[in-house]
Amino acid sequence: MAVGTVLVTGGTGYIGSFTTLALLDNGYDVVIVDNLYNSSKVAIDRIELISGKRPAFYEIDITNEAALDGVLDKHPEIDSVIHFAALKAVGESGLIPLEYYRVNVGGSIALLRSMQKHSISNIVFSSSATVYGDATRVPNMIPIPEHCPIGPTNTYGQTKVMIETVITEYLEAERRNNKKAGKPYEQFNGALLRYFNPCGAHPSGVMGEDPQGVPFNLLPLLGKVATGERAKLTVFGDDYASKDGTAIRDYIHVLDLASGHLAALNYLREHKPGVRAWNLGSGRGSTVFEMIKAFSKVVGRDLPYEVAERRQGDVLDLTANPARANEELKWKTQLTLEDACADLWRWVENNPTGYRQDPPAELLEALKAKKA
């Protein structure tokens, strides 16, 4: 008997697939909806390979409310949602803002409307630390706590703030209306998870990040430089007020991030807090140059890079203060930056074409031996 059944939107993507794996490993059943815009259906095979369980999957777009209704009609057992489905590149969001608002905000509204019709009242929203914008503008806000003033500096961050607002106002209204009508109201709960820079891969080497097209994040780009698919890395800006001039970010292993989503869902179900925001991060900031050095060490050679101008919307320091999640969710990062680099290299070295190839036989044998 499953603990519960969770709808995971964007569940074939990088963080969505690892969260699905964590849910299955902890007794939940999972139904995935994803349009495969920037992911691969093969992720589902890898989830099954590792966990021995297969989530249900529907290829639909998050903005298609009728299609969402159809999935929820078929699965009345779904009692909670973890919402990842979104466009997610900071740079791209400034080039095509209408599309970002249509998909991210419009898709979230379609999802909430469908949840409302099907009496699903728990949602964990995969938000972003970009909602804070440049936290250095406010004294004493590094590392960033949840009470740091919101102030995104790019379109992607703006869409996340809007979705957080819509979720908060919707759930608070449902609680208020039900309470007024003398009906149960505590079942309406939301987690707003603001996380920093996910990285790494599954330690087995058979599951990782497989962006379609050019990746936008530092570590996947470094992976492509290491395999020779890209000639060099572009570092955007070396004139920041940091120890080496490059931007500071809080890198978090994707396995830790997935366990944070699981912890937040369990907290909503157990404590019914209403709407609550949590930062998921390590609390340790690393510069871009430090990351290049750490990954180069794992690969065994220096990886080439060139410095370019800063990108619009980038900020100096995004480091989390994870104290609230540590205390309330009883969650904290377990894996190091070195773990993330080693796991990522194992993934990209063995799977240079990502999910468009079968994993090497020796990795599969090692995985089988571990499970036996």
TrEMBL record:
Reported EC number(s) for this entry are: 5.1.3.2
One GO MF term on file is: UDP-glucose 4-epimerase activity
A GO cellular component entry from the record: cytosol
**CDD domains, per database record:** UDP_G4E_1_SDR_e (cd05247)
Keywords annotated in UniProt: Carbohydrate metabolism, Galactose metabolism, Isomerase, NAD
Cofactor(s) required, per the database record: NAD(+)
Catalytic activity reported? UDP-alpha-D-glucose = UDP-alpha-D-galactose
Q: What is the uppermost EC class here?
A: isomerase
Ranges for domain NAD-dependent epimerase/dehydratase: 6-281
Q: Which GO terms describe its biological process?
A: galactose metabolic process
UniProt pathway annotation? Carbohydrate metabolism; galactose metabolism; Carbohydrate metabolism; hexose metabolism
Highest taxon in the source lineage: Eukaryota
Q: Does the keyword Nucleotide-binding apply?
A: no
Database matches in InterPro entries: Epimerase_deHydtase, NAD(P)-bd_dom_sf, UDP_G4E
In UniProt terms, what function does this protein have?
Answer: Mutarotase converts alpha-aldose to the beta-anomer. It is active on D-glucose, L-arabinose, D-xylose, D-galactose, maltose and lactose.
Q: According to its UniProt record, which protein family does this protein belong to?
A: In the N-terminal section; belongs to the NAD(P)-dependent epimerase/dehydratase family.
**Subunit description:** Homodimer.
Q: What is this protein called?
A: UDP-glucose 4-epimerase
